[in-house]
Amino acid sequence: METNSLLGYALLGLLHQHAMSGYDLRKIFTTTAMGSFSDSPGAIYPALKRLEGQGLIRGTEEASTGQRKRRVFKITREGLAELKRWLTGPVTRNDIIRGLGTLMLRFAFMDQVTGPGHSADFLRCFAEQIAAYLPELERFLEANRAKMPLSARLALESGIQEYALRLKWARTAITQYEPGKRNRV
Amino acid sequence: METNSLLGYALLGLLHQHAMSGYDLRKIFTTTAMGSFSDSPGAIYPALKRLEGQGLIRGTEEASTGQRKRRVFKITREGLAELKRWLTGPVTRNDIIRGLGTLMLRFAFMDQVTGPGHSADFLRCFAEQIAAYLPELERFLEANRAKMPLSARLALESGIQEYALRLKWARTAITQYEPGKRNRV
DNA sequence: AATGTCATGTAACTAGTTACATGATTTA
DNA sequence: TAAATCATGTAACTAGTTACATGACATT
């Protein structure tokens, strides 16, 4: 069972949408809302090489529109299987603590790859984990608020607010997957 | 001018609060709201070594409460200068795009290290950058909402909501630094 | 005697950073 | 001809991951 970095899964997920070159992928990271990923060639080309080495994607040379030849990558069956495996993994307490970015990326790909049924399940686990973690943070704040400098307390409150917001978001999002709504893309 | 990772600055900021051992720092990462950092010895001990090599902290052996000897680290003048340099750097568009974690850590240390006057300035820059980025994300959503799968759209909306929340938070936080309020710790 | 907690550290591996190199084609 | 855009790639460096090693003392 292979392991990949978040960047690797991001590339895999994007290549599942449609085949693309490394350059296309870089442009996605520079010009769309996926700007949290680095668009540097030193990150993307080696990552594509690794994915290809694992047999998860396959690149084919293509005579491009005039300029230099481009390598267009498409996801393989193995790649799709690995992407599904990643998407369907459990939502752990650790995932929540280490930051929600990974989980949000997983969710973003979910409808397309594993279908809306699974997305709703994911949201339920997501909400459950946050609902468990949030009171811990709140208890920590109350226990320490007196001894904390203002900016430290404000920063912590901001973090708590973020988790609270995501919980509310998840609960609203779940309703969009309810039967009766036409939820297919 | 030295460069350090986020972990390096986190350690520097914590050691500015008071001198501690590597083990104490690890415990902070496991037991407090700073859980986004790894508490693994393979991360922390080498990071402390690097900081000491740069002259930013200094460790002294200490006969501990019974068990094995511990090395207690304290920040040096150079370390404090470097921490201040990091805290007072500009708030860039890139800082906002790459994730708010780094900026929130900077802010958390700010009152103690550079004083409440600077914290308010920081919040104004922070709010300004978010206020500039947010409409870009919103335009992207509107331009793509039709072609996006439900889960992808929801994920993007969640991201937008987060930025909106942080903007509101920053504007509220600024008022807590206004003259007339007793804002010293 | 075995396990747990305090406490520090290293080694092998992985992946990301910045910066550079290359090269074709198009536009100013 | 200089610069911009398309397009791929490498090299040196940095830092983090997991896993292991060590060792003292305390508890069961």
Describe the protein's architecture and organization.
The structure is a homodimer of 185-residue chains. Chain A has 185 residues and is mostly helical. Helix content of chain A is 65%, strand content 8%. Chain A contains 8 helices and 3 strands; from the N terminus they run H-E-H-H-E-E-H-H-H-H-H. Chain A has helices spanning 6-17, 22-31, 41-53, 77-88, 93-97, 101-114, 116-144, 150-175; strands spanning 20-21, 57-62, 70-75. Chain A has a 3-stranded antiparallel β-sheet. In chain A, strand 2 (57-62) and strand 3 (70-75) form a beta hairpin. In chain A, helix 4 (77-88) crosses helix 6. The longest helix of chain A is centred in the C-terminal third of the chain and has 29 residues, at 116-144. The A-B interface holds A 32-33, 35-36, 97-99, 101, 104-105, 107-112, 116, 119, 137, 140-141, 149-152, 154-159, 161-162, 165-166, 169, 173, 176-177, 183, 185 and B 32-33, 35-36, 97-99, 101, 104-105, 107-112, 116, 119, 137, 140-141, 149-152, 154-159, 161-162, 165-166, 169, 173, 176-177, 183, 185. The first copy, chain A, binds a DNA duplex (28 and 28 nucleotides) through residues 3, 5, 7-8, 21-23, 26, 38, 40-43, 45-47, 49-50, 64-71.
